[in-house]
Amino acid sequence: KAGVTQTPRYLIKTRGQQVTLSCSPISGHRSVSWYQQTPGQGLQFLFEYFSETQRNKGNFPGRFSGRQFSNSRSEMNVSTLELGDSALYLCASSSTDGYGYTFGSGTRLTVV
Amino acid sequence: GENVEQHPSTLSVQEGDSAVIKCTYSDSASNYFPWYKQELGKRPQLIIDIRSNVGEKKDQRIAVTLNKTAKHFSLHITETQPEDSAVYFCAATDSSYKLIFGSGTRLLVRP
Fold it and tell me: Does A43 contact B96 at a Cβ distance shorter than 8 Å?
């Protein structure tokens, strides 16, 4: 079966702009989590969505937001981009019980 | 909330030796502990996981042990090979299904 698909793979944005990233989970998976990965900070939890509801939230500013659609696809949005937002953004999906998260290949965001 | 600490941050071993990576977690309600391997430029891949009702799990050359009392869990890799070189992440879920990761261990297996 198809894995977790993230688009786009690469993005270059200017400070102050906003960006939207997309994640399509494995078919049948209803939980989608988002992580920010930077060399010095590892995998930082952004938020988790389940059945179109944000079930968990990490410690990121309100500029980071997300949503989930009825087909379980999820998007995350970052507004007013800062240089420090440059990172690899990974999403991961899981079946209902929350075990066995599978990651997508990520979107590498560069803010200039 | 949950906090996961991982040690060491880097580990260098000779091919054929064993490697051990250790993690501690803070939330006693955590019940699921996966380990991920991330090769350079690739996505994290689940390599083994353990649930809180099991003390040890083995899959070929890798094993994970869990000590619920001490809130420790460890990854053991035996007979290491150069292709085991990667960054390894431990993680734990708290009672809200939020998966929290350790800071990662860069493993280098020297031929």
Answer: no
